[in-house]
Specification:
With 413 residues, the chain is α+β, with helices and mostly antiparallel strands. The chain has two domains: 13-91 and 174-208, no CATH class; 210-336 and 363-412, 2-Layer Sandwich (D-amino Acid Aminotransferase, Chain A, domain 1), CATH 3.30.470. The protein has eleven helices and 21 strands. The chain has helices at residues 45-52, 95-98, 131-139, 175-191, 231-242, 245-249, 271-275, 279-289, 298-316, 349-352, 393-410; strands spanning 16-17, 19-20, 32-35, 38-42, 65-75, 81-86, 105-114, 122-130, 146-148, 153-158, 171-172, 198-204, 213-220, 251-260, 265-269, 296-297, 322-323, 327-333, 357-358, 366-371, 376-377. A seven-stranded antiparallel sheet has the order 1-6-5-12-4-3-2. It has a six-stranded antiparallel sheet with strand order 9-15-14-13-18-20. A four-stranded antiparallel sheet has the order 7-8-10-11. α9 (298-316) packs antiparallel against α11. The model is unreliable at 1-12, 89-171, 340-353 and 357-363 (pLDDT under 50).
Length: 413
């Protein structure tokens, strides 16, 4: 049931079958789609404490906190696992879907939703992944692989056609979210019975306004372990930082998806790729994040830099905060304004990340958001082990280097 919150995400009186969030590019915990504008994730008390006492100046740089919802695991007669959120006590049966599941597929999730008009019949959507697709998905998710969405076709086969008899458009998605989702379901299934209620945080879906969300997930700071980390975990995280750009730049890449206008698919990279990058490799990948398959999106550089500078100003003023293991998302829409398009001059774009420059006058909409605060600590936070003085200098170091690199790209260096 939804807890007290500034704004309720939905007035729905029915159970919500949670879907994997298809635009999750990093992290290890599964993000779930609650509705078009809301995602949810397992509740961690330290993260809840952060959102409940969020400084006003930081709110424009974090997802809006929307409350808490109870979630339980459900297994159908075929052994398929789903997560169901309970915003109220009333639920709807989705039994009809079970009969539509073929032996040649594995149902990762399915969804029931009531048609918008009151009294209308229910609309059901079934999403299936074939055994070969699943095998390829997780084979391609191995460390260091570059993931192209061209290989992974997401099938959304509606059981009911629309009013014109059309089937929904087939799309392809970043495999990382599905990877996290499967692991999460398996963990929950092995540890808990179906009746156990789990608390999930409801948060703003910060990419819902974008047609083709290009997302860069950056792990910020020179330290990644929380104060509560065991000695073993602490040593592991210190080693990761020392062997990656976290130590040298205060920032490393944890995931990325970039819409490629020339192919109509997303170029995807995971956290294992990001860990292996040198400082120069980080700069090349940051440039690649701004390449759309035809040219470098120079129109994005100034608004991204301005927003990062605004965040830097806010972080410098936050005394006692330490954002250990948190991430920073840089987001923009892969769908350009027409005046910013330009021809492709280099067909070896993916390998060389050497995009030609397109000079546009229109500044595209961009966003910068901080996420993942399970290990964030500040004076007065719940479970606080240590109180720190002054701002988070490791985070500031990462932001300053990020801004410098983007400025160099802007100046053609």
């Amino acid at each position: 049931m939804v807890g007290q919150s500034p704004r309720e995400p939905s007035e729905s009186r029915t159970a919500v079958l949670l879907e994997p969030f298809v635009h999750q590019v990093g992290g290890h915990m599964s993000m779930m789609k609650y509705d078009e504008h809301t995602v949810c994730k397992p509740l961690v008390s330290q993260e809840l404490s952060f959102y409940e006492s969020l400084p006003l100046a930081m709110r424009q740089f974090t997802p809006q906190y929307k409350g808490i919802v109870s979630v339980h695991l459900k297994k159908d007669s075929f052994g398929n696992l789903t997560l169901i959120a309970s915003p109220s006590l009333q639920t709807e049966s989705c039994g009809r879907l079970e009969n539509a599941i073929g032996d040649a597929s594995v149902t990762m999730w399915h969804k029931c939703k009531r048609a918008a008009n009151t009294g209308a019949s229910s609309e059901h959507t079934l999403v299936k992944w074939s055994h070969t697709q699943l095998t390829k998905t997780f084979k391609d998710s191995c460390p260091g692989k570059m993931l192209l969405r061209t290989d992974l076709q997401y099938r959304a086969d509606s059981l009911l056609e629309d009013a014109k008899g059309n089937q929904p458009e087939k799309n392809s998605y970043n495999p990382w979210g599905l990877h996290c989702h499967r692991q999460h379901l398996n963990r929950m299934s092995s540890k808990h019975n179906e009746n156990k209620l789990h608390q999930f945080l409801l948060l703003e879906n910060v990419v819902s306004k974008y047609s083709y969300p290009c997302i860069l997930d950056l792990k910020m700071g020179t330290r990644q372990h929380g104060d509560d980390a065991s000695e073993e975990k602490k040593a592991r995280h210190i080693k990761k930082c020392e062997q990656s750009t976290s130590a040298s730049l205060g920032v490393r890449i944890c995931g990325m998806q970039v819409y490629q206008a020339d192919t109509g698919h997303f170029l995807c990279k995971d956290k294992y790729y990001g860990r292996k990058l040198s400082p120069e490799g980080f700069r090349q990948t940051l440039r690649q994040f701004l390449c759309n398959g035809n040219h470098l999106r120079t129109d994005l550089l100034e608004p991204i830099i301005l927003r990062l500078k605004a965040l830097l100003s806010v972080i410098r003023k936050q005394s006692s905060y330490r954002f250990y293991s948190s991430s920073l998302l840089i987001i923009y829409d892969g769908q350009e304004q027409k005046e910013n398009t330009a021809p492709l001059d280099n067909h070896l774009l993916f390998q060389k990340t050497n995009c030609t420059t397109a000079h546009g006058t229109h500044h595209s909409r961009v966003d910068v958001r901080m996420i993942d605060f399970a290990h964030t600590t500040f004076k007065g936070s719940k479970g606080n082990h240590t109180t720190y003085d002054g701002p988070d200098h490791g985070y500031i170091f990462g932001l300053e280097n990020l801004i410098k690199i983007l400025q160099n790209i802007s100046e053609g260096k």
